[in-house]
Amino acid sequence: MPEIRDVDTSDEAQLREWYDVWRAGQSHRRPDLIPSWEAAGRALATDPPGFELQLFGAFDGSTCAGVSLLNLPLDDNPTVVYADVIVHPDHRRQGVGSAVLEELERRSVARGRERVLTEVFRATRGDGGGSAFAEAKGYVEANREGVKAVDLAAAEPRWPALEDQVAASLGDYRVVTWRDRCPDEYVDSFGAALSRVMSLIPQGDLDLEDRDWTVERVRAAEQRRVRIGLATFESAAVAPDGDVIGLTGVRVSTHDPRTAHIGVTMVLPEHRGHRLGLATKLASHRALRAAFPECHLVTTSNAEVNAHMNAINEAMGYQMEETLVEYHKRL
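Above: the chain sequence. Below: its structure as tokens.
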């Protein structure tokens, strides 16, 4: 049986060993869709605000054969744990994945968690056996999202025509964009909009609660992103009364700015019909392009049933790359 060892996230050598196995286990995916060491290392070394992050590995002697990540929300969704189980391709079908998963579930129960959520990426070259393994261990599909990417240089010529469409529909709404820190005048309503995200997006059977994005929580998240080297370009749709009612956030690592990722795009239901999702998405991409011309790719994921957002992505030039299947299991 492999030996389970915790990773000291303050030890760069241990963290890099964990990361290398985690990345190797996803060799079926397009390489630039997987966060690089330069982008991921600093994030893995610090707990996100409101979460406890645990990393451990399964060792065959001195060789790390499989790894796991547990992300425990502390302020909301207290019965859930978000988790990864990854086995190096050279060590599959040797009981490593089973040992890692057994330890993951043991730790989850010890922390009072009732449900594990995990993800499998299905690409053109398969899924590395992730779905078969999850289903054999009693995990069931809860949701499915399409992972899409856009080549910024190729897509940019589309933007002026789309911006004309936005201008014709915007009415009394406007879009403001900032980098890293939300202006004080918007932070209350920005947090209030974020607090409704989970209840507004299609999430299948995930059954996740909204987070309460207080001003303090917004500021803590902003500070951590800056500390780990993420530049965030947030574009917000602002209603005539001055409240933030829609947003798109794009994040890119300053240590490896080749690929950026969209965090959240949403518009409150009572303000839809003004092309605000498209407006904020265009504005955030413009800001990213101006600040990081070396960034060539932006990725996003949306539920397959989210027809409106998928139409926006298609108009902007996003193309389907892989499918993200979210599994869960009640312990």
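The radius of gyration is 20 Å.
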